[in-house]
Write a structure and sequence with these properties.
With about 180 residues, the protein is an alpha+beta fold. It has helices spanning about 5-15, 20-30, 70-80, 95-100, 125-140, 140-145; strands at about 35-40, 45-50, 55-60, 60-65, 80-90, 110-120, 150-160.
Length: about 180
């Protein structure tokens, strides 16, 4: 997609009040993002952050995370029931040149999803697609470490925005 058509698509997204349209875009963005990060805190407020490539948003209400190497995060999640996931894509120099010239962003820098832990499952219908995706990316040896999937309810989604705090969309909750 060229810059102009991508910009038009994003303008439509920002001007739309259709929650389903926004969530479809956010879900597609989240699931295709190259960088996903999981943040948790323990009962004393000590933060923990780790890469989380297994995170997937199957619908607008839920996030699934494959339980692979989540030792400290899993302890925190089980105790506090809360987590935040951030999904981002690379922002290329073409983006910044366009922004400098027009003041318009071509696409969101990413999203933060604030979530509540609701379940841990070994249901094969949920586990299998995550296993296959993981095996395709990093190999079967790592995918074989997947033993369960954490299921989260999405409480809030916030867009990552490079604008100054005074910008009306910066740090606001998407509805």
């Amino acid at each position: 997609m060229g810059i102009e058509s991508e910009l038009v698509a994003k303008k439509d997204f920002y001007s739309s009040n259709c929650s389903k349209t926004k969530m479809k875009y956010i879900s597609e963005y989240f699931n295709s993002a190259l960088a996903k990060v999981l943040a948790t805190v323990d009962e004393n407020g000590q933060p923990n952050v780790c890469p989380c490539g297994t995170a997937n948003m199957p619908d607008e209400n839920v996030i699934h995370i494959g339980n692979v190497c989540l030792d400290r995060s899993l302890v925190n999640i089980r105790k506090t029931k809360k987590a935040t996931l951030m999904a981002t894509k690379p922002v290329e120099s073409e983006y910044w040149k366009h922004y400098e010239k027009t003041g318009e962003r071509l696409y969101p820098a990413g999203y933060r999803c604030y979530c509540t832990f609701i379940d841990e499952t070994d249901d094969q219908k949920i586990l299998e697609p995550i296993y296959e995706r993981l095996a395709g990316r990093v190999g079967k040896k790592m995918a074989d470490k997947l033993d369960s999937v954490l299921v989260f309810k999405i409480d809030e989604i916030r867009e990552i925005d490079f604008e100054r705090k005074s910008h009306p969309r910066c740090g606001t909750t998407l509805e």
